[in-house]
Amino acid sequence: MEDVLDLYAEPEDAKRPVICFDERPCQLTEEVRQPVPVRPGQGERFDYEYRRNGTCNLFLMVQPLAGWRHVETTERRTSQDFAHQVKALVDEHFPQAEVIRVVLDNLNTHTPAALYETFAPEEARRLTRRLEFHYTPKHGSWLNMAEIELAVLSGQCLKRRIGDREGLRREVAAWQTERNGKRAKINWQFTTLDARVKLHHLYKS
Questions:
Q1: Is the dihedral of CA 197, 198, 203, 205 positive or negative?
Q2: CA dist 2 to 127, 140, 143, 194, Å?
Q3: Can you tell me the mean pLDDT for 168-191?
Q4: Distance between CA atoms of 89 and 85, rounded to whole angstroms?
Q5: Taken in order 192, 193, 199, 201, is the CA torsion positive or negative?
Q6: What is the DSSP letter of 96?
Q7: Are 63 and 149 in contact (CB under 8 A)?
Q8: If you compute the radius of gyration of the chain from its CA atoms, what whole number of angstroms results?
Q9: pTM for the structure as a whole
Q10: Digit-coded pLDDT (tens) for 112-145
């Protein structure tokens, strides 16, 4: 826990950026009947019925101190999908970084082994040399700031029915562009000292 909190307390470093990474499933649903549009004194109304069109996955990475985030819509969330997101993080999003410090939860696909399962050993090693993995403790995934950003995404973009993956991709891309344009940041205030006081039961007397 303190490893992650100490990381959050460091100043921004373009050569060693801190990136929080997380993912969430997303159910695709579409309307059976057209909603009734807004009228004076009455909000838009939706029928309770809907059609399910399967599921997909959203990978989210956020750089809290810079106010940058990227969301990728994928069909699944396998270890290979994770590996390709990490490769994009290294080669496309932060090619000039010396090392990228990635905050993750303990999902079984979030490991360097996923890179070796997906790419040739030389390529996997090239990527892992540029990465530093920092894991939140068991039952402590709330320490990953990417969860906060996913909550914002859910509240601002996903609280309506979206029927297909391409439509979801467009909606999420528009949300991402707006948030990045504002350089919206996460105001994290929980420190190592706070942890030692408020979570004292986790420490030896």
A1: positive
A2: 26, 11, 10, 10
A3: 93
A4: 6
A5: positive
A6: T
A7: no
A8: 19
A9: 0.85
A10: 999 999 999 999 999 999 999 999 998 889 999 9
3-class secondary structure, 155: helix
Has residue 106 been placed in a domain? Answer: no
Residue 82 placed within a domain: yes
Per-residue pLDDT, 160: 73
Fill in the DSSP letter of residue 42: B
Query: Is 124 a member of any domain?
Result: yes
Count of domains in the chain? Answer: 1
Asked if residue 98 lies in contact with residue 15, where contact means CB atoms within 8 angstroms, the answer is yes
Find the domain containing 135 and state its range: 12-33+44-100+114-186
E strand or H helix that includes residue 53: strand 50-63
- Rounded Cα distance between 156 and 178, Å, is 11
CATH number of the domain encompassing residue 79: 3.30.420.10
| Nearest to 22, CA basis, from 109, 150, 143, 115 | 150
